[in-house]
Amino acid sequence: MSHELTIYRGTFIHLPRLEGGLTTSKLKLIRNRGALWVSTLDGRIKGFDWDAHDEGSFRELMRVNGWVDVDAQTNGNSDHVKVKIVTSNEERNEFFFPGFIDTHIHAPQYPNAGLFGSTTLLDWLETYTFPVESGFGKTNTTPSNKPEDAPPSALRVYDQVIARTLSHGTTCASYFATVHVPATNALAALAHKRGQRAFIGRVCMDNPSFCPDYYCDASAEESLESTKSTIEYIHTLDPKGVLIKPIVTPRFAPTCSRPSLKALGSLAASYTPPLHIQTHISENENEVALVKELFPECSSYAGVYDNYNLLTERTILAHAVHLTPEERQLIQKQKAKVSHCPASNSALGSGIALVRTMLQEGITVGLGTDVSGGYSSSILEAVRQACLSSRLVGHTTKYVNENPQPDGSEKLSVEESLYLATRGGADVVCMGDDLGGFDNGMIFDAQLIQLGGVCEDVVSLDVSGNGVSGDELSVRGGPVGNVDIFGTETWEEKIQKWVWSGDDRNVKAVWVAGRMVHERV
Amino acid sequence: MSHELTIYRGTFIHLPRLEGGLTTSKLKLIRNRGALWVSTLDGRIKGFDWDAHDEGSFRELMRVNGWVDVDAQTNGNSDHVKVKIVTSNEERNEFFFPGFIDTHIHAPQYPNAGLFGSTTLLDWLETYTFPVESGFGKTNTTPSNKPEDAPPSALRVYDQVIARTLSHGTTCASYFATVHVPATNALAALAHKRGQRAFIGRVCMDNPSFCPDYYCDASAEESLESTKSTIEYIHTLDPKGVLIKPIVTPRFAPTCSRPSLKALGSLAASYTPPLHIQTHISENENEVALVKELFPECSSYAGVYDNYNLLTERTILAHAVHLTPEERQLIQKQKAKVSHCPASNSALGSGIALVRTMLQEGITVGLGTDVSGGYSSSILEAVRQACLSSRLVGHTTKYVNENPQPDGSEKLSVEESLYLATRGGADVVCMGDDLGGFDNGMIFDAQLIQLGGVCEDVVSLDVSGNGVSGDELSVRGGPVGNVDIFGTETWEEKIQKWVWSGDDRNVKAVWVAGRMVHERV
User: Fold this and answer.
1) Residues near A493 by Cβ (< 8 Å), separated by ≥ 6?
2) A336 and chain B: CB distance < 8 Å anywhere?
3) pLDDT tens digit string along B41-91?
4) What GO cellular-component annotations does this UniProt entry give (chains A, B) (predicted)?
5) Please, are residues B518 and B165 in contact by the beta-carbon 8 Å criterion?
6) B343/B467: higher pLDDT
7) pLDDT tens across A279-319, in order?
8) What is the pLDDT of residue B508?
9) Alpha-carbon gap, residue A160 to B476, rounded angstroms
10) Which domains does chain B have, with CATH numbers?
11) CB A114 to CB B475 under 8 A?
12) CA B501, CA A504: separation in Å to the nearest integer?
């Protein structure tokens, strides 16, 4: 039986929306308990009642609005509005939280997650990345835009990476695909099918000096035409861009010819509204030196992108570890966005981005997993790594050069990292009005987190030496994953425990635009 | 029916034993496939046959040795030796790996795992640590050495931390308890009951200037007597120290009076062999400055411990982040050991220890979780963090001061981090002849790792817009946790995937001295 609304009941936790961005350091989580309702038609939040926490006031809310539970065995009344009710379990420490937004992830590299050895960026690309990406299709064959022309192994990887990121609570992701049109379109189709909100970028790389001969666009023209082909496919798949949008994706300056950079900047600007753009910037010191050498006419790495109209308010710049103060100023002026990828930056030894500095200068920052420079497809892991690396940045030469006396303000709190993972990410994809929180009118992209019950209290001290057996061999009590609740924690401390010890086991269900897209079974 | 031997069949992976310690950077994992047998009597490895991999040669091995499977329905023959057979499943990517050794963990702080805010060491102790530890008993009450006099909440926490660490594959842990004798003895009793190998240390802290008034030994004498009481209890519980051993535990120099430090050094030396010792050193720069101020007569922080005969070859020094070259030299000379706690050092912003430098100078290093300065009770997480922080250390001022041109040699490989977690840890607790690998004669402390099967290949591209439902909502295929195997990986790459994406879900079973102490259900 269809229903007009879904009523979510229980505990809702999110971050406040900061119009000026995350410039304060005293950010607090907001917790509301009651009911929130979402339209089936458009997946948007139509209202909430934080007084309807107990059973009586909830029934009154239902009565006043003329709502009837679609799952209850009652006689239909044509005056009534059918609603579905989803309830979080307080005793199991469940709560609704905004879905995570992954602002930078390479879908085809997923099979390489965890494989990087001791390489750094440029040799990692050659050793691990280009070989795996080249397996997603053939270049220089008859042009096709059909997803079914992608290799079966590509479909398998793309389906798995979408399933995995959803299982980690990622409701929206900005994907780099490969150069191949069929496989890129298949990624769009699979995300659409599974119901994940996604930006899909065919990777542009046409500079033979910095691309391997087996994996390279044949020319700037081909790069442009192939990109247009994926944009058209996506615009046919999802004409209104409800879930899936194209994103113009020059890999990074060294792999793109000047004509290609120029054409892609113009291409993005030719649409109304202009298309989103994503690329990499200043991840690694050797890369920065290389760009300086390749583009002597530009003032800086950021200046290269600006020069080709690729530094727009709809541009996502991944990494931004080694920006100069002047580059940060330019990025802020152009309102381009930054995807902070701490797990990747640590794994590849790239360094630690000056996140606090960028935030205080008014740059919009979100989090990215950067699979597979990053080893994990979980944004919760990115939240942890953002906290950890911010606690180490004060020990780095780069930070100390700008701040001779670190005072601890460089550290990101759990709340701030969660802000970057939700509200921040929403701003990075220019959807801050629609995503990232439970504000009235926003789209319900959310996850139901379950920490589990309180650990049992009865422990036997029988030390007869016979040891334990059977059930006793396992961890006892209520936890569903690694989060142990002892019953003495405040609710804020439970969130901290979730951030530091949680994983996909704690993600009980995930919704995108009010549609359930993942359920833990 | 009892059995004399257990035969473990399948794949065994471990690190080679390096007598000179981990000074090479070309460490490789060893993989053997076949059978290995362990005596029920003493839990030691009595032999192996790496030719007995296929069914035929295994049956021949059984026949030649006169072994019969205790679980098979055969008639007994008194000439035959009854054996139990445990087999790893190749298709599920299962393998045996040595148990992890956690060389530094604070059991009572486990309820605080993940709670530390943005504090650093000294304020973290006051805000989080001392309050939780003080709840493990009352000071200044009638002396008792009975575990049952510990508060029920203490038993619950201790039982959970043992269960959790076992579930992560930790077969041996060196625990800090609290100042309280009954609860400390309960920790020993519970570890003994669950079958975890453990060093149990009652914490000594008698300096009222640096201990809170609500949580402090009354005097150096009381500190000594209480310590003796736990030592006696443990020697009664496990007279031969098969599983549980006492360890003398001055918290760290600032919390201990000179008479206490002196008495504890003498106490450890008064036993044959001398008792193990554990403490903290040079975790944080403010702490280093404080020690310098408090002990102006000593040459250095390490010098304080050396001065009181606490820097022995049976001493575990936790952290060692800010040691001077002279201190490292002293530690190496005295053969004291270092517990590297990377998750904690990042979480509390302490800095990054110069692990490669210490290793190359001949210092023995193992890994510690340092719960709850460390947020995770998993040594696999410590392995990851050791790799990650070693990839960042080249960006730190401290490292660059000693090595103006980092050349990448500071990075720890996955293999090296796993060495620290097994062989290294065994050397840190002076059991390198007994633990850390599958060498003949060693004690079988091991874990059975299960990565799961290869991801399924069939993906539908049906983009009718009806989306997925039911089973399809979940991650498909063979994985048991977050490790995805696509079938193209080498076995070494599977190990890397385990290290970077694995968790307790991949720990199928754990044995200590051949006794199963954890099984994933």
Assistant:
1) B115
2) no
3) 999 999 999 999 999 999 999 999 999 999 886 666 667 899 999 999 999
4) cytosol
5) no
6) B343
7) 999 999 999 999 999 999 999 999 999 999 999 999 999 99
8) 97
9) 8
10) 1-98+437-521 (2.30.40.10), 100-380+421-428 (3.20.20.140)
11) no
12) 12
DSSP B11-79: EEEEPPP-TT-S--S----EEEEEEEEEETTT-BEEEEETTTTSHHHHHHHHHHHTEEETTS-----TT
Cβ-based neighbours of B278, under 8 Å, separated by 6 or more:
B104, B174, B176, B199, B201, B247, B248, B249, B315, B316, B317, B318, B339
How many Å separate Cα B235 from the centre of its chain? 22
ipTM score of complex? 0.96
Measured between CB atoms, which of B190, B396, B474 is closest to A519?
B474
Compute the nearest-CA separation of B253 from chain A (Å). 25
Q: Residues of A with CB below 8 A from B407's CB?
A: none
From chain B, the residues in CB contact with A395 under 8 A are 349, 351-352, 396-398
Helix A379-392, helix A491-501: angle, nearest 10: 90
The structure tokens 């805000």 sit at B127
Rounded to whole angstroms, how far apart are CA atoms A423 and A101?
9
**Cα of B396 vs its chain's centroid, Å:** 27
Asked if residues A344 and A374 have their Cβ atoms less than 8 Å apart, the reply is yes
CA A441/CA A83 separation, integer angstroms: 18
Of the pLDDT bands very low, low, confident and very high (cuts 50, 70, 90), residue B465 is: very low
Pairing of strands A365-367, A337-340: parallel
Global pTM? 0.97
Q: Answer for the pair B170, B196: CB distance below 8 angstroms, yes or no.
A: yes
Contact indicator for B7, B18 with CB cutoff of 8 Å: no
φ/ψ region of B21 (left if φ > 0, alpha if ψ in -120 to 50, else beta) reads left
Amino acid B124: pLDDT? 94
Instruction: Inform me whether the C-beta atom of residue B375 falls under 8 Å from chain A C-beta atoms.
Output: yes
Nearest-neighbour CA in chain A from B242: distance (Å): 12
Neighbours of A326 (CB within 10 A): 12
DSSP A91-139: TTTEEEEEPEEEEEEEGGGGGGTT--TT--HHHHIIIIIHHHHHTT--S
The mean of the pLDDT values for chain A is: 94
Angstrom distance (rounded) from CA A456 to CA A429: 44
CB contact under 8 Å between B474 and A518, yes or no, is yes
* Minimum CA–CA partner of B188 in chain A: A463
Look up residue A95 and give its two tokens. Answer: 């709560």
CB within 8 Å: A519 and B473:
yes
Phi-psi region of B441 (alpha: psi -120 to 50; beta: other; left: phi over 0): left
| Average model confidence (pLDDT) across chain B | 94
Which amino acid, one-letter code, is at B232? E
Q: Give the type of residue at B174.
A: S
Q: How far apart are CA A479 and CA A195, in angstroms?
A: 29
Q: How far apart are CA B194 and CA B205, in angstroms?
A: 29
Q: B89: burial class by Cβ within 10 Å (0-12, 13-18, 19+)?
A: middle
* A467: pLDDT strictly greater than 60: no
Non-local CB neighbours of B73 within 8 Å, separated by 6+ positions: none
Q: What is the pLDDT of residues B221-271, one digit of tens each?
A: 999 999 999 999 999 999 999 999 999 999 999 999 999 999 999 999 999
Please identify among residues 231-290 of chain A the ones whose CB lies closer than 8 Å to any CB of chain B: 237
Cα–Cα distance for residue pair A426/A197, rounded to 1 Å: 12
A487 has a chain B CB within 8 A of its CB:
no
Chain A residues near residue B378 by CB distance under 8 angstroms: 482
Q: Please state, as a whole number, how many other Cβ atoms lie within 10 Å of the Cβ of residue A72.
A: 9
Show residues of chain A in contact with B483, CB under 8 Å. Answer: 114
Q: What is the 3-state secondary structure (H, E, C) of A141-209?
A: CCCCCCHHHCCHHHHHHHHHHHHHHHHCCEEEEEEECCCCHHHHHHHHHHHHHHCCEEEEECEECCCCC
